[in-house]
Design goal:
Layout (H helix, E strand, L loop, with lengths): L12 E3 L4 H9 L2 E4 L5 H7 L6 E4 L8 E4 L3 E5 L4 H6 L1 H6 L1 H7 L5 H6 L2 H6 L5 H4 L14 H5 L20 H9 L2 E4 L3 E3 H4 L17 E7 L4 E8 L7 E12 L2 E10 L6 E2 L1 H7 L7 H12 L10 H22 L1
Parallel strand pairs: 1-3, 2-3
Antiparallel strand pairs: 4-5, 5-8, 6-7, 6-8, 9-10, 10-11, 11-12
Helix pairs in contact: 5-10, 12-13, 13-14
Bound molecules: flavin-adenine dinucleotide (FAD).
């Protein structure tokens, strides 16, 4: 029976590499890396990822969770959300990371979704995933909500060629924690990993470059993460803020702030950090000024204006929560 298949199509390959080198070679040849598969398989099915085959990373291991010398927490890229959330080392060393991994998605997804896959998942833009052609889709161009108007409620609010909202909660927390990713080629600060897209690429990873582990400094201060979504479970953040801070003599001596759900990549809010340094964490006016600085430059499309105030509140809440943990 003719099922309409193209007999000239090359075979679709399922590869199970035995070494990092073998994996890197297969990835360079065009195979799509498959970790938990909770997003990669969806993208293949939607035709948003084009590949000659898939490269199952699981035989490589890459699941360790260890504390290394110098107080660095090392997490294998294939450690699952559930493993990280329940790890005593993570809970004791970087509690905010354990908490966020324990809250993303649903228990079923957390059992298979991996750290690397979470950082590298594609955006949840309803246009991109909903069949519209855009700069991210194969052969597409432009940005439909900006070019044609439409529903912007779930989109980012900072101007750019693409206004998708970055989906990973974990990436936002890792930016605030000053974490890095180790790849098959180099080490990259998580803050530098994602790029403001002008085409299909969300990250600065080269074709075939694989993430092998994530390094999180455990040393300085306390941290907190505040997010709001349509539901507590099974829903991506509409807006989120992560903060890591250190106080000295009642003043904020060192602070990192990252925002999520507001742009195609996590945003490091440096102006807010500057506004906060030297402030008393109990000084609500100083916290409000920092929140305003964090949102400076945002230009929401019609329908997404609510995210401005939501994000301001979350920045203040995350600073207060982090300061409270330090005091406690
Ligand atoms: C209903 C639902 C709700 C969700 N809610 C949330 C949420 O609230 N917050 C949140 O943060 N996430 C959420 N997620 C996302 C979920 O956590 C991701 O689907 C998941 O983390 C992806 O992990 P994975 O291991 O399945 O990645 P995969 O699907 O296997 O891979 C994702 C992408 O990363 C690439 N990749 C994977 N691992 C590597 C590697 N080591 N090196 C290089 N490339 C790699 C793949 O090629 C693919 O492009 C949700 C998902 C669903 C389906």
């Amino acid at each position: 029976m003719d099922r309409g298949g193209d007999v000239r199509s090359p075979p679709f390959v399922y590869a199970r590499p035995e070494s990092s080198d073998e994996a890197a070679t297969a990835a360079r040849a065009g195979a799509l890396a498959l970790a938990g598969g909770t997003d990669a398989l969806v993208l293949l099915r939607l035709g948003l990822a084009r590949a000659q085959g898939v490269l199952d990373l699981k035989p490589l291991g890459w699941r360790e969770i260890e504390v290394k010398s110098g107080g660095v927490l090392e997490l294998g890229a294939l450690a699952t959300m559930a493993e990280i959330a329940s790890s005593a080392l993570v809970r004791e060393g970087v509690q905010t990371l354990a908490l966020v991994c324990g809250r993303v998605a649903t228990p079923q997804i957390r059992n298979v979704a991996t750290l690397g896959g979470n950082l590298l998942q594609a955006p949840r833009c309803p246009y991109y995933r909903g069949g519209f052609a855009c700069m991210r889709t194969p052969g597409g161009a432009g940005c439909p909500p900006q070019d044609q108007g439409g529903d912007a409620r779930h989109l980012g609010i900072f101007p750019g060629a693409c206004v998708a909202a970055h989906p990973s909660d974990v990436a936002v927390v890792l930016v605030a924690l000053g974490a890095g990713v180790v790849t098959t080629r180099r080490t990259i600060a998580v803050e530098e990993l994602h790029r403001a897209p002008d085409g299909p690429a969300d990250t600065i990873l080269e074709p075939g470059e694989l993430v092998t582990k994530v390094l999180v400094p455990m040393s300085a201060g306390t941290s907190a993460y505040a997010r709001v979504a349509d539901r507590a479970s099974f829903a991506f953040a509409l807006a989120a803020a992560a903060v890591r801070l250190k106080t000295r003599q009642g003043r904020i001596a060192d602070v990192r702030i990252a925002l999520g759900g507001l742009a195609p990549r996590p945003i490091r809010a440096r102006a807010a950090e500057d506004a906060l340094t030297g402030a008393d964490p109990a000084d609500r006016a100083a916290l409000d000024r920092a929140a305003d600085a964090a949102l400076d430059g945002a230009r929401p499309l019609p329908g997404a204006e609510y995210k401005l105030q939501l994000a301001r509140v979350l920045v203040v809440r995350a600073i207060e929560d982090a300061a409270r943990s330090e005091a406690g």
